[in-house]
Amino acid sequence: PQTHTDTGMDHVLRVVGGCTWPGDVQPTCMAHQSRKQEVLVGDSHGYLRRIRWQWESGGELQVQWNGEKQRVSGKKIQQILVLDEARAVAILANGDVNIYDENMGEAHAIQGVRNATSMAASRSGRNSTRLVIACKRNLLVFQVKRDREIKFEYSSELLENVESLACVQDSFFIATKQNYLLCQIKDKTCEELMASPSRKLGKTMLHSITTLDRAVLVSESVGILTDTEGLPVGSTLPFPVNPTAMTDSSIFLCAADEAGIRVYDCVNSRLAQNIELPMGTSVLMATDRDSGMVTVCNYNRVVFLAPLGLEDQVCDLIARQEFDSALAIAKIMDAKALCSSSCWLADVQAEIGLSKLVELEFEQAMELFKESTTFCPSSLFPLFPEYTKFWEASVERVDYLGLHSPVCPLEDLLVEALYSSAAPSILQKMIQDKYASMVNIQVGLFDVGPEVVKQSYAVHSKQVIAKYLEHARMSINLEHHESECVHTLLANLYLDTGDIAGLEHLLVAENLCSEALTERLTRESRFHALALLLRSKGKYHDAANLWVKLADGKLEEAIADTGALADTGTIGFRVLAAGYVADYLAESNSEEEVRTLLPWVFDVHWESGMKLLVGGMLTKSLTRDEIMAMLQERSDTLACQYMCHLVENEKVEESALHTKLALMLANIAQDPSMESDHALPNAKETGDCWTKAKLTSF
Asked: What's the pLDDT score for residue 76?
């Protein structure tokens, strides 16, 4: 057999073996029994034949059929279903359905089933299979358990005879001569999906693709893919002629006709492979669910087709940029534990993400990097050599599957895209993806010029990458030098995109940003961010001096749309700066710093200063008399608050202090206007001036 494809893929399936039949065999149905590694073939005389197969150590397929056959009916066998979970086999013959164990021993007839025309099955539990049987216009639903216990669930009556059935999870699809129907097992509803205006669809066919939870509805040489709700998924499958048989292997649908077998990728709805295997019009097909082996049978021979190694298929698809299909197969392999290593799916996700970077699909790439457990953020460093070159030698490079192009600087990627022969289509893609929504672009006319587009695209790309790096910083355990580079790169991207709030959020938290960042922050007048960086490096004195100068207007912060200054305004920022300086004083061991900066804190925001005193954080630096003198210089009410704290909270019992507090409260009580210098606690709650209330209780 010859194989070729219009899409460039070498092959999905390859012929690996087979056998021939004697001339009197007229096969009518076929099924794979994966656990036994055998194919069950029914014929028109009611005989069942078993073809056994196994892989030899040399990689060759050994196919065995010794001519034995088993009589299971006096008439034609219409259909065979292997019920994997129940470890049983259902055989439809002469309108009756019998259940056998997997060794094809004694048969158990399903009572009440007469004139059956079709069957379908789906997994309903760990040890049970749901079996749906069509008896002309009636649908019967059963549960078949591993001990071959058969339990009736419910029945439904239709208006027309059923031609074929297919189950996908808890949904089953029905084909009649006039329409397609969808029945939901959970709510026992039935609705029409499609019908011909003439009420004749021609030959109808159904098949379920279990790995994708999809069904294929065939009518007039067109295959329609639907999900479990009956909604179309992707594009239609263009069959040259109506298939004579169908089966599936992984994400691929195999459709047989007189010329051979056509293999369709059901993720991208495209033809993936043609296999020239003429076998006439009476062709049967079945798939081994464990290995993906496809068996094709006609009146005189059986042919086995094995799938290309799944990992090889994935790599081939990635190399040809069929990323959705590659990812779909990789996820199936991971779910069935078919990967060569536990992290293979993660490597596939990382590989596809890096390939998408070259296509400028940054959002999709970052989502894949988040899903991948093996992706290293250092793989993004080559995008920004101006920020990461210092760490280049110390960071180990990871190749993953080694299929992606080398990661180039972002500037080079954008220049190549915008100034290549494909520039108009690239611009159109940007508009469609909303990368350049902030500028008015007319494709081909370059109203604003590609340079403006490039800058717009660069900003958006950096925003997307910054979001991923923030995720990586919080959730991935990185080596110290890699963390240092990630944090520094993230800070630079925040500056590039004007996200000052993001920058400040990074620097407020524990971070490993390089001190080399100080030069850029100073140059761009981001003094608040610089103070946060210095504080994180233990340079509290330098940070406090910056906040004092900012609050006093001796330094001017650059204008920004976000960040502390933008959020709070000038007055609010002075309060914020006072809070930072107060936090510094609480940890400071320098009496000189306290004596210099504490009065400044009280002048800017007395609440922050009072919080320091009440917390007892400055008792080692200042005496009580020094504190009292500083407070009285500013307001007697501040002095009263501090003395109340000493009496009520510190339980100081000194006659001089008590007397001084009583006299000062009395003086203020005689002149309530003295309270207006500072807001006092509980003034609104007492309903009276704070001083009178304190004096009375004292």
From this structure: 92
What pLDDT is stored for residue 425 in this prediction? 58
Q: How many helices (H) and strands (E) does the chain have?
A: 21, 30
- Spatial contact of 206 and 192, defined as CB atoms under 8 Å apart: no
The upper half-sphere exposure of residue 208, i.e. CA atoms within 13 Å in the direction of its Cβ, equals: 24
Low-confidence spans in the chain with pLDDT less than 70: 1-11, 23, 196-203, 419-450, 619-620, 672-689
Residue with tokens 């760990």: 126
| Cα end-to-end span (Å), the chain | 105
Look up residue 36 and give its DSSP letter. G
d(CA 647, CA 567): 39
The CA angle 226-227-229, to the nearest 5 degrees, is 110
At 282, give phi and psi (nearest 5°). -95, 80
- Residue 497's H or E segment, with its range, is helix 480-497
Q: What does the pLDDT look like over 362-386, one tens digit per residue?
A: 999 999 999 999 999 999 999 999 9
Torsion angle in degrees (nearest 10) through CA of 195, 200, 202, 208? 30
Angle at which helices 606-614 and 591-604 cross, to 10°: 130
CA distances from 85 to 41, 125, 207, 529 (A): 21, 7, 20, 62
Q: What DSSP assignment string belongs to 193-240?
A: EEE-TTS--SS-EEEEETTTTEEEEEETTEEEEE-TTS-B-SSPEE-S
Q: Which two tokens stand for residue 163?
A: 């031609």
Query: Do 427 and 453 meet the contact criterion of CB atoms below 8 Å apart?
Result: yes
- Provide CB contacts within 8 A for 492, sequence distance 6+: 384, 387, 517, 520
The pLDDT assigned to 465 comes to 94
Give the integer Cα–Cα distance in Å for 449 and 664: 74
Helices 449-475/410-418 angle, 10° precision: 140
Exposure b/e, 316-351, CB count within 10 A at least 16 = b: bbbbeebbebbbbbbebbbeeebbeeeebbbbbbbb
Q: How far apart, in whole angstroms, are the C-alpha atoms of residue 403 and residue 289?
A: 29
Sign of CA dihedral 123, 125, 126, 131: negative
194 neighbors 206 (Cβ within 8 angstroms):
no
Q: Which helix (H) or strand (E) holds 28?
A: strand 27-33
Q: Which of 334, 260, 327 is nearest to 294 (CA)?
A: 260
Which of 663, 656, 650 has the alpha carbon at shortest distance from 698? 663
Pair of tokens at residue 135: 């008896």
> Which residue's structure tokens are 């047989």?
256
Dist. CA 31–CA 33, nearest whole Å? 7
Q: What angle do CA 610, 611, 617 make, to 5 degrees?
A: 105
- Asked if residues 410 and 383 have their Cβ atoms less than 8 Å apart, the reply is yes
